[in-house]
């Protein structure tokens, strides 16, 4: 494996005609890291990955592997392992031949190919399926073959584009575990594209949240989860309760953040916007909402049972909906009070926009 210390994407722009699919995209990846590119459909995640693999040519900027400029190299000279959503296996080749393919292309000696294929297939627990064709395997097994094929070439970098999207929920979880285990066991450096917050949080050393071809925030999962930089990132991190707000300072220097107006408005005391940042929206997560003897009055509008807990839709006096996760059982129509600890509420300068916009 070609050893490297650092991969750097420096001010990458990629245009499709006048459309800017990537804008000033800069990212440094250290050897051994697991990085996720997270964002909704169309935000440019696959485009970024394809610039790395060489399937797309950057419009400007450079990609450096230590001191080597690689954006000028064709894909085969970069030698990265790729795993795609649709597996992309050769249907007429056996499992063994699929995994051997990249090594044969590289003219690795036959005996070594046999060894490496065997090792790669054992790593993904498919040693007993080597003579099958892809069509004779389940989706999860096919994706395991694709992973074995990617790692068999011992690439400096493995690129994965939504590899779990076509699998059912149970297999997704299993293979997620497997990918994390392989990453550590084989000492890989992995860049992983997903639109799934849970996948990104559970797999990554660092998450890069993207929107419209630009990086919104990057950092460790815990950092993004507790301190999202803006409302967009917050929503990706599960802050389902998001509202327009105005923060007022009342006579004795105390602050009140108000959501809605009139007598039914929600009011949160003691929230202070960051200096100079202002506050136009606020957000908190369903698990930040607590039932309380006193607090904001609301009616239970809907209850969903989720195994360990209930997901409850609360409706306040002015009709605002608040989602609460709770271990306490509540009944539809019940009148309750709730509170949100002030340290769990995030204030943002961004104007509130409804989720679908
Ligand atoms: N060959 C192309 N020509 C023109 N526009 C393109 C091309 N490929 C991608 N785009 C556009 O670039 C934007 C980013 O696409 P990209 O595939 O990177 O998004 P993504 O975040 O990976 O989304 P998804 O999860 O749906 O794959 C989209 O608006 C897409 O329509």
TrEMBL record:
Keyword set includes Transcription regulation: no
Annotated ranges, domain ABC transporter: 7-237
Parts of the chain that traverse the membrane: none
GO molecular function: ATP binding
Keywords: ATP-binding, Cell membrane, Membrane, Nucleotide-binding, Transport
PANTHER family associated with the record: SPERMIDINE/PUTRESCINE IMPORT ATP-BINDING PROTEIN POTA, SPERMIDINE_PUTRESCINE IMPORT ATP-BINDING PROTEIN POTA
Protein name: ABC transporter ATP-binding protein
Organism encoding this protein: Polaromonas jejuensis
């Amino acid at each position: 494996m070609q050893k490297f210390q650092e991969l750097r994407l420096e001010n990458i722009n990629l245009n499709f005609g006048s459309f800017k699919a990537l804008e000033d995209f800069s990212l440094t990846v250290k050897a051994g890291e697991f990085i996720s590119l997270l964002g909704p459909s169309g935000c440019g995640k696959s485009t970024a990955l394809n610039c790395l693999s060489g399937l797309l040519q950057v419009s400007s900027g450079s990609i450096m592997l230590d001191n080597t400029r690689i954006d000028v190299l064709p894909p085969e000279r970069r030698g990265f392992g790729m795993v795609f959503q649709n597996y992309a296996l050769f249907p007429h080749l056996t499992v063994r031949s699929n995994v051997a393919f990249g090594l044969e292309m590289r003219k690795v000696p036959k005996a070594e190919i046999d060894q490496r294929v065997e090792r790669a297939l054992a790593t993904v627990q498919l040693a007993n399926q080597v003579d099958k064709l892809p069509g004779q395997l389940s989706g999860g097994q096919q994706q395991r073959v694709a992973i074995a094929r990617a790692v068999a070439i011992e690439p400096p970098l493995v690129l994965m584009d939504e590899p779990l999207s076509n699998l059912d929920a149970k297999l997704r979880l299993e293979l997620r575990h497997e990918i994390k285990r392989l990453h550590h066991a084989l000492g890989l450096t992995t860049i992983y594209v997903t639109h799934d917050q849970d996948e990104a949080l559970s797999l990554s050393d660092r998450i890069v949240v993207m929107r419209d071809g630009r990086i919104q925030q990057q950092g460790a999962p815990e950092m993004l989860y507790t301190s999202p930089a803006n409302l967009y990132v917050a929503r990706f991190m599960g802050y389902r309760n998001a509202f327009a707000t105005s923060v007022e300072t009342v006579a004795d220097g105390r602050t009140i953040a108000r959501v809605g107006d009139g007598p039914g408005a929600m009011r949160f005391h003691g929230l202070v916007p960051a200096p100079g940042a202002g506050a136009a929206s606020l957000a908190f997560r369903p698990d930040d909402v607590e039932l309380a003897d006193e607090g904001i009055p609301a009616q239970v509008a809907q209850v969903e049972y989720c195994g360990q807990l209930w997901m409850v839709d609360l409706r306040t006096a002015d009709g605002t909906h608040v989602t609460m996760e709770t271990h306490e059982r509540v009944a539809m129509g019940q009148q309750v009070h709730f509170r949100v600890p002030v340290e769990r509420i995030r204030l943002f300068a961004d104007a509130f926009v409804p989720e679908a916009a």
